[in-house]
Design a protein that fits this description.
The complex is a heterodimer of chains A (319) and B (648). Chain A is mainly α and 319 residues long. Chain A is 77% helix and 0% strand. Chain B is globular. Classes of the chains: A mainly alpha (319), B alpha+beta (648).
Chain lengths: 319, 648
Amino acid sequence: MNLIIFILKRIGTIVISLVCIIAITYILMWLAPGNFFDIQRFSTAAQSSQLTAEQVAILQRKFEEKYGLNQPLWKQILRFTFDAFRFKFGPSFSNPVRTIESMIAERFPVSLTLTLLSISFALIVGIPLGIIAALKRNTWIDYFTMGLSMFGQVIPSFVIAVFFVFIFSVQFRLLPTTGWDGPRYMVLPVLTLGLMTMSGIARFMRASLLDSLRQDYIRTAYAKGGTDRAVIFGHALKNSLIPIATILGPQIAYLLVGAVFIEYLFRIPGMGQLFVNAAGARDYPLLVTSTYVLSLMVMIMNLIVDLIYMFLDPRNRVK
Amino acid sequence: MWKRFFIFFVAVSFIFAGCGPKKGRIKTVSLPFLDISSFHPAYWQSQHILAQGTIFEGLFGYEPDPKNLGGLKVVPVIAESWKISDDGKVWTIKLRKDKKWSNGDPVTAKDFEWSYKYYCDPELKDIPLWASPLGNLKNAWAVKAGGVPVDQLGVKALDDYTLQLTLADPDYNIHLGLAAGGVVPVHRKSVESNPQDWWKPEKLVCNGPYIVKEWTQGKDCVLVKNTNYVGYCGNVEKIVLKFMVAGLELGIQSFQSKELDFAWINNVGQYNYVLSKPELKAAFHEDISDLMFAGYEIARCLDPALDDIRLREAFAISIDRETLVNKIMGNRAVPGYKIWDDSSPIGKKLKPIKFDVNRAKKLLAEAGYPDGKGLPQLKFYITGASDPVAEYIVNEWKKNINVDVKIENLESGLYWMSVWTTTPKLSAGFMRFGGPMNRFSTGDLTKNASHVLWNFDFPAEFRKLRYEMDFEQRNAIRTSEKGKNRSDWDELLIKSKKLWEERKKIIASEPHRLWKEEMSRKPTFEEQFETIWQNWQNAKNDRDRQMWWRTGAELVLSEEYSQLEYKARSPHHKEMYRANLELMRMPWEKAVANAHKVIQMFQDTYYMVPLYFDKIQYLQNPKLSGVVLYKFSWGPQIFNFKYLNLAD
């Protein structure tokens, strides 16, 4: 019951935060140089020498009515916020035949799949690597695994991507270069994105496990006759996972909308591509929507992280 | 455990290893393409390239012809024959009777009439009429604005296979524009049954040689042959278009692994890599982007520092273009001394901008800046991470004429706004500029150098006044609370009468027939103002009254501005304007033969300076032939896929 109340309170906070974010983004957009009428393609139409001034005025009014620009700013923000919570974002400026929600509906599953696979790879490889490095501290195994993780963290992802493509696609023809048409196509992008996250997880895991292994309760566990396996996996590991949960939340949000380079390189129709195109085209409805979606993702991930914390550490549970 | 893991790893590798994509016996070609956001042919987006002869066909189309501009010529496709009235305003076009839609329906003149009305209908918003010859149909803009019913649009099917186009202005070359994407017919029944998404592949009915079978935005688009197509089409049965962003793509690698039959070479690194691999060098092709020049323009600002033509010429002739293309651009361009290069009939007649450092120094001294001393700080505006071409130019100026121009990086939005419009935010300087043709039209032959007529060559005082009128005064009108009362009109009514009298004097004194006609276009200023005044008097509420007052005030401001602009043009500027009007009205062949005279006038102002022409470099599967390059403003791309053939 306490947990449900906690979750409901957090959802309430998310809603209030989103309303503020939408309002701020909308106002910033409004203040940007050139109003909607000037920037959008209508102004090109209005410049035709065949239009009379009367017709320009009619076109302007229709344009303003279409986008609600004839309303006071506060009404526009309210209308957009109400529509945003219903996931209705209207047409995109740069793509007037499609609604923004249809574009997001098409791309979100792709981004989600890529993100989940990358995170899964990072966890499945990174956690054991970190454990091995911690247990074999100051041996060649430790140096090798940490060297590998440093490699993953310092080399930019697009460099790693090109390297993988050169080896696996061009030289050995094992995997396709680009696309998103099935499991074979997912290997390289997942490896590329996952490597970066895996490196961070491995390093955090090592440090965290080493820290846990120095604790008194671990000494007690050994003193009671516990085996290595029982002590490490039964006691130390759970506590060591808490910092991993910390970095996972923002990482997932970033991967959902931020892996733009990788999406372009591997031709993955994800959300990162969509939002970068919007910024370049000054597609304001899409820009506001992308800010909204990204904020929502970050807040949901933070909530999930907090719930994971509670699971991992009873001291954090809601009383 | 390790043994089991190793066996598992090997097994997984075998599952994922393959022999590459299996093409089977269907002749399939994979090509890189731009992002496609929909297949609606009317929007000025990448799909209009596909609409031009691949999934749609119009009355006219493009055919490869190496002897013509851009390697293309315009030929009749669905049109069979045509007649033009003496005044150039009425085109009567006979259609072929054998053309079909992909569902077997015949393509008729009624399809074209309905489609053009559909495009111009005010319900279909945001269609860029400026980019389409439909903008010259009688009443097109008025229909689009909702002021005139759509059945008054200047298009009519006289019978099933005869189409009549009535134009607002005479145009003896409209057939050239009718080859472009925004004027292809659409299938009426499909659009009426599915108004929101008729363009989606599962519902799309086309009339071109290929139809869209599958599509995912941001990824792949699969085209297959239209079995109901009548006309020539090569032997490629399936085309896979792969969305790739130049500079962020693995095109060369995809070509090497045989996933692409065509790949663009986008930078020096890729070019050198290709030349170093014998198998890639064998697939290498190159062409010149002759429909587009790359150069720089004088920044469109209010600062008068570069108003002296001697200064502008000095800068233009002190750049070594040979070194620019060979060393800085890695031999991926050819020097551009003129707006058209020597491979074209226009370029052959143009006089070049010669590299002459001595003359540049002399001009600087004559302008009052010997050895570059005393010049105000000039800037070269760029956007993005860096611009090696701008850095080279700035170094050349320092080295050759001792002028220190600073490079300033602008935010992308501000940069692109400043390239096209005058802004007080910039001080005197330069910006990168490229002049393309959007399609074959006499107006496009100047490749945007005609911007000199609207943005440049005005005295600094007029530019300042123009900015004040265009932005500050116009903004003040739009935010004014005036317009509710009759007294708000007093000043406007007096001013409008004075302006109209002055306009009549200007028209009477203008010697050029075409310019007189342009200034006398109906409805006149007086007629428009009267309409707006009447609308205000008939308005039912304050909101509408304010709207009409603002419209009237803006109209008066525009007229005042237009008259000031006319008077501010120097005699030479007026000569250029008249010459440009003449060029736009000429038949195509005559325009191509005479365009050099007008273009030379623009080039000699040194407001827009050519530097180079890009080379279009690409890899092509040796078994693939019939690749047609699209060199207009969206290019370089490949299009008109019906000419593709794949050898066994």
